[in-house]
Every structure is written in structure tokens, then in C-alpha cells.
Design brief:
α3 (104-118) links the parallel β4 and β5 (124-126). Helix content is 33%, strand content 23%. It is α+β, with helices and mostly antiparallel strands. A 5-stranded mixed sheet has the order 1-2-3-4-5, sandwiched between helices. It is globular. It has a single domain, classed as Gcn5-related N-acetyltransferase (GNAT) (Aminopeptidase, 3-Layer(aba) Sandwich). The chain has helices at 20-33, 44-52, 104-118, 133-141, 157-163; strands spanning 10-14, 59-65, 68-80, 85-95, 124-126.
Length: 166
């Protein structure tokens, strides 16, 4: 019999192919929190292909509190031309509502920061919805600085196809 992990113990582990259903469940939890559930089109097959296929596009860390999966961080490598070094872009970090404020988010970010340092990255960055005051306060408490002078631009769907000339 495996020993039970104490319920307050936070453990961060890299996700595996077997974790894809859990990852999708956590993505749906994040989308629900952000009031964007209608935008989730990800499937287990897409996650398998793009996270664990021949050219993984991103990596995922899972957070456990005791024996329960309670959060995730999904990130990928970027590159800074000015620094001449890679960086890490944190696409999403999510902690289930019932365990927020118990150190899980900080543990996830700490582990992503450790990955960045181990890979000699020059920076770790992410975007935050401007209405998410709890997240903004949390990130500020960690020393993160908003990049107010930058505006995110995005091309998707028909506009992306048109830009590609397709």
C-alpha cells in the first residue's frame, strides 16, 4: 500500500501523456473562472498532439495538494532578441478555487522560475486579464512588474488565414 501524502503538502510534477484528461479538466476550470468557457475548443487529442507529440509546443507542470490535483502551469520557450537569450512565456497558471491562498500558485510559479534559471533564460513573463485584481495583487507581491507600455495583438481565424494568404 502506498503511503498517503499529508493533505497540506504541495507537490509540483511535470505532466505526462497520462495526465491529458486532468490537464483538459484544469483548462476548463480556468476558462470557467475567466468566463470564457465558450471559447474552449481544446480536446484530449489536440493536447496529446501538441504537448506530447514529436514537436511539443509547450510544457505543463501539475500541482498536487496531498493526493489531489489542484492546479497547473503551462509555459513555452520564447526568445529575446535584445537579451540574446531564451525566455519562458507562462501561458496559463490556474489553481482550483478551494485551495487558493494556500501557496499552490506560488509553488507553481517558483517551479517555472527554476526551469527558467536552469535553462539560462533572461526572463519569465505572462499576461493577466486587467479585471483579475486578486492575480494582479499576487503577481505584484512576487516582484512582477506590469508592462503597461506594451499592447498585445492577436490574429486568429479568418484574419490569420488571410494574413497567411490562404
Amino acid at each position: 500500500m502506498m503511503p498517503m501524502i499529508p493533505p497540506d503538502t504541495i507537490r509540483i510534477t511535470p505532466a505526462t501523456r497520462a495526465d491529458v484528461p486532468l490537464i483538459l479538466d484544469l483548462i476548463r476550470g480556468l476558462a470557467d473562472y475567466e468566463k470564457l468557457s465558450h471559447e474552449v475548443v481544446a480536446t484530449e487529442d489536440l493536447l496529446l498532439q501538441h504537448l506530447f507529440g514529436p514537436r511539443p509546443a509547450a510544457e505543463v507542470l501539475l500541482a498536487y495538494r496531498g493526493d489531489h490535483a489542484v492546479g497547473f502551469a503551462l509555459y513555452f520557450q520564447s526568445f529575446s532578441t535584445f537579451l540574446g537569450r531564451p525566455g519562458i512565456y507562462l501561458e496559463d497558471v490556474y489553481v482550483r478555487p478551494e485551495v487558493r491562498g494556500k501557496g499552490v500558485g506560488k509553488a507553481l510559479l517558483r517551479e517555472v522560475a527554476r526551469v527558467a534559471m536552469a535553462r539560462a533564460c533572461g526572463r519569465l513573463e505572462w499576461s493577466v486579464l486587467d479585471w483579475n485584481e486578486p492575480a494582479l495583487r499576487f503577481y505584484k507581491s512576487l516582484g512582477a512588474k506590469p508592462m503597461d507600455e506594451w499592447t498585445v495583438h492577436r490574429v486568429t481565424g479568418d484574419a490569420l488565414r488571410k494574413l497567411a494568404g490562404l
